[in-house]
Design brief:
elongated; 5-stranded parallel sheet; 7-stranded mixed sheet; FAD/NAD(P)-binding domain; 7 helices; alpha/beta
């Protein structure tokens, strides 16, 4: 197939709250943005059932429907939203080159990255089957639905410790499942966990299976001696980290040791002029829909100012 090429003023790579918000602002600024949605159009919220913590939705919202609303708003102002996956980039010059689905070339005066991050999972069939029905990768997002119930959380780092103590305020009991004989979390976070009476830390323990038909009702655990035990829980949280979807940018942008794109503090600017990073691709601290949306706004405003400075009309 012959290579197709087109030039755009503003290209948004990825969707989700950051990408769609960037699109709304960029379209209203007449940047005529083109968005390549990526592998998971709408981002992580499309695998979240209820979203209760996004302002303006007093009764909560269904994650996939909320992303459809974001998309419709971006389209209303003229964003050209396309299916596709960016497979490689070339940020050599002032005009940036992007290859979509290994065949279509798009050049762009400005690029807003909104490729997000993906939660790491244990890899159990039952975990995927019950995802959204008691299994979650975000305690802050979903802990509220398990008020007064018994839950489990897998992980040993600072995020897992923080989420375990967050859940402990809401839930009757929290089992914290730690694969090794100690946590990786900082001493301060470990003390917080160990001083919370309704958290029980299960060291040297792994999850064999999450049980339940329509929703989670328990988990089968196995310790390093091969002994199994079943715990009765209605919520099962996985906090073993996230992987930012940034591999295609590694030769061009400054990334931190875990792969998050580095931005100039207080901006969405990367080390490449005209390339801006937003949402979970550059945020490993907050990782919320509302903060992603805010950074998408920053990305579009930064791109608009960049283009104005360079006289791109």
């Amino acid at each position: 197939m012959s290579e197709q090429t087109e030039h755009v003023k503003c290209l948004i790579i990825g969707s989700g709250p950051a990408g769609y918000t960037a699109a709304i602002y960029a379209a209203r600024a007449d940047l005529k943005p083109v968005m390549i949605q990526g592998l998971q159009p709408g981002g992580q919220l499309t695998i979240t059932t209820e979203v209760d913590n996004f302002p303006g939705y007093p009764k909560g919202a269904h994650g996939p429907q909320m992303m459809e609303d974001f998309k419709a708003q971006a389209e209303r102002f003229g964003t050209d939203i396309r299916w596709g996956l960016v497979t490689s980039v070339d940020f050599t010059g002032p005009v940036h080159k992007v290859i979509v689905d290994e065949k279509t070339t798009i050049t762009a005066d400005s690029i807003i990255i909104a490729t997000g991050a993906s939660a790491k999972w244990l890899g159990l069939e039952s975990e995927q089957r019950l995802n959204g029905f008691g299994v979650s990768a975000c305690a802050v997002c979903d802990g509220f639905f398990f008020k007064g119930q018994d839950v489990a959380i897998v992980g040993a780092g600072d995020t897992a410790a923080e989420e375990a103590t967050y859940l402990a305020k809401l839930c009757k009991k929290v089992y914290m499942i730690v694969r090794k004989g100690e946590m990786r979390a900082s001493k301060a976070m470990q003390h917080r966990v160990l001083n919370t009476p309704n958290i029980e830390v299960l060291y040297n323990t792994e999850t064999k299976e999450i049980t339940g038909g329509q929703s989670v009702d328990g988990a089968i655990l196995v310790n390093n001696k091969g002994e199994e035990r079943k715990i009765a829980v209605t919520g099962f949280f996985v906090a073993i980290g996230h992987t930012p979807n940034t591999a295609i940018f590694k030769d061009w942008l400054d990334l931190d040791e875990t792969g998050y794109i580095k931005t100039i503090p207080g901006t969405s600017k990367t080390n490449r002029p005209g390339v801006f990073a937003t949402g979970d691709a550059q945020d490993k601290v907050y990782r919320q829909a509302v903060t992603a949306a805010g950074s998408g706004c920053m990305g579009a405003l930064d791109a608009e100012r960049y283009l104005a400075d360079f006289g791109v009309h």
